[in-house]
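User: Earlier you gave me the apo prediction for this protein. Now I'd like the version with S-adenosylmethionine bound, so I can compare the two side by side. Same sequence as before, with the ligand SMILES added.
Assistant: Got it. Here's the input I'm using:
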Amino acid sequence: MTSTGGDPGAAARAELVAQLRRRGTLSEPRVAAALGQVPRHVFLPEVDLPGAYADEAVPTLYRDGVPVSAASQPAIVAIMLEQLRPPRGGRVLEIGAGTGYNAALLSHLVGPSGRVVTIDIDPDVAAGARAHLAGAGITNVTVICGDGAAGRAEDAPYDGIIVTAGASDLAPAWAGQLAPAGRLVVPLSIRGVQHCVSFTRDGGRLRSTAVCECGFMPLAGAMANADRRLPVPGHPGVFVLTAPDTEVDTAVVAAALGRPGPAAATGLTASVRETFGSLPRWLAFREPASASLAYLRPPEDAAASGVPSVLDSPLRSALQRSAPCLLGTTGFAVLDLARPPGAGTDPGPDPVLELAVRSYGEAQLQRDRLAELIAAWAAAGRPQASHLRIHAYPAGSAPSAAEGFVHRAPHTTFVVSLR
Ligand SMILES: C[S@@+](CC[C@H](N)C(=O)[O-])C[C@H]1O[C@@H](n2cnc3c(N)ncnc32)[C@H](O)[C@@H]1O
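And here is the structure of the complex with S-adenosylmethionine:
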């Protein structure tokens, strides 16, 4: 990787842009220009140059051993900016300032006559974002420390509102502060599985214009993500992630973790994206006992924690180490790999995974059910998030169930259907 004297990140940035284009996650020239010019390394001063320009999320703050702030993965950053389409000269609100990097990209997109307001709930994070933006010479971004659930009425309406932490409901302020033709882009969990959704107004409701898979850390504050992240006692860093109404006994999970059964190959292969994007959604919409087993500590300690090898895989970033599981009363079954991808060779950027299921404790029924659901998912063509249509109605409205799967959150009723 070469570097130019005045701009040490220029070559690495150009390579990152080229890589995102090749992988099909970046096509809009304005977004490519922003990614090619904003120096990500200035927003990640603790990270070396190759690390700052790798297509990886970079955790920047841990509390109680769990990441609470990060620079998001450039691929999803690019996708969300393409979904948002902020107009030149426009006004944008970001919830989740983090490092300030995405706000800097937004500043580039709206140009000098546009305006960006970014909010972070954590005072240290907000101060860091302010310092990084100043270091990058960016002057049209205002960083606020506060709870983004309230939006920021003073500067509304916004041509775009982008949320960069995972929500499980839509704050009424977001729709209320959106300009008539504005877009709201938000990572949204439905039945415990996140999708990044771009919404526009459609009469009294919001209508999705694009849906993709994503994995953001949870929104905190008044509209905190209601999905549960339950620590497994005696297994530091191991959590069960579930939708709010799923029954979980973490003592059963803890006891079962010490009693792994053999990995039973399903005979199916899948890409990383299919395995960790499409499959968990398929399970969540069909099986009330589905959840995810997650390992959220730095990877070095994963093997000692007792989690299956799928969570210890070098393929997964530190923020996304979770695998779908089915919970039972005497154990659980979890997706695992039949053998490590590539088996000794470089697995490449999109390795083929050999899927297996594994029971922990007494969970043969769950293991067989998981294998059956995985086979049904493969037979149904492994539907992607992009096939979904999501309508969001204010809570209290009664959309017809014939429209699709109805999911009620406190402030919003979502209706999910296939395009
Ligand atoms: C993935 S990081 C954001 C990444 C960021 N956009 C960047 O470019 O680096 C998520 C951020 O959301 C913040 N956050 C969580 N809940 C929030 C809330 N209710 N209001 C504002 N910020 C919140 C966290 O403190 C964290 O910094």
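For your comparison, keep in mind: The CA atoms of residues 53 and 394 lie 40 Å apart.
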